[in-house]
Design goal:
Elements lengths: L7 E4 L6 E4 L9 H26 L7 E2 L1 H8 L3 H9 L5 E3 L5 E4 H7 L3 H9 L13 E3 H8 L3 H10 L5 E3 L2 E5 H8 L5
Antiparallel strand pairs: 1-2, 3-5, 4-5, 6-8, 7-8
Helix pairs in contact: 1-2
The structure holds zinc ion.
Protein name: Helix-turn-helix domain-containing protein
GO molecular function: DNA binding
InterPro entries: HTH_17 (IPR041657), SinI_DNA-bd (IPR010093), Tn1545/Tn916_Xis (IPR038148)
């Protein structure tokens, strides 16, 4: 990723410090924060794998689930689950101290299972753009507005698959996408 010719200020996604991003892909202020982010991601993946394994081993015929199994199977947060049990939305029984059993069919009616919801998440959502010239910049306008040269703009359009439309001598690109790409993330 080549360095960009202008400054983008961003908030580090780990520590919240504002920093000057060296490339459009920079999300963290320092190698230390990148490492923290990487570790968090790895831990989340490991946790996810464990839950998936647990969910796979729950027999189909079992009608009551433990809290841990329900979390594994439906990807619902533990605290959410306890709240739903407490307010009576999800029927559950106490079979002993700290042994809650939750009615599976009630959960099935309310939540997708973890694998179903993951499939939903990965299905790409087609984004609708207005390609009307009024909602677009020309390449020249982008260069002027963001002080980048046109070959850089084109390389970003290709890299991020930003739609473009040619009318006469001008190429139009949705303002929204370009602004999202180049404007600073700091509010
Ligand atoms: Zn940081």
């Amino acid at each position: 990723m080549p360095a960009i010719g202008f400054e983008i200020k961003r908030k580090c996604k780990v520590c919240g410090e504002v920093f000057i991003a060296k490339t459009l892909d920079s999300l963290y202020c320092s190698p230390k924060c990148s490492k923290v982010a990487w570790k968090r991601k790895r831990d989340a993946q490991r946790k996810e794998e464990k839950l998936t394994q647990l969910a796979l081993h729950i027999p189909d015929i079992r009608e009551y689930l433990s809290v841990r199994e329900a979390v594994a199977m439906f990807g619902v947060e533990r605290t959410t689950l306890y709240r739903l049990i407490k307010n009576g939305t999800v029927p559950a029984i106490n079979v002993g101290k700290r042994l809650t059993r939750i009615k599976r069919s009630a959960l099935e009616a309310m939540f997708l299972t973890r694998t179903e919801s993951n499939a939903e998440k990965t299905r790409p959502v087609p984004k609708k753009y207005s390609m009307e010239p009024g909602d677009c910049y020309t390449i020249g306008e982008i260069c002027n507005r963001y002080h980048v040269d046109d070959s850089t703009v084109w390389s970003h359009i290709r890299k991020y698959s930003i739609p473009s439309r040619q009318i006469g001598n001008f190429v139009y690109v949705p303002k929204e996408e370009i602004d999202n790409l180049y404007k600073s993330e700091v509010k």
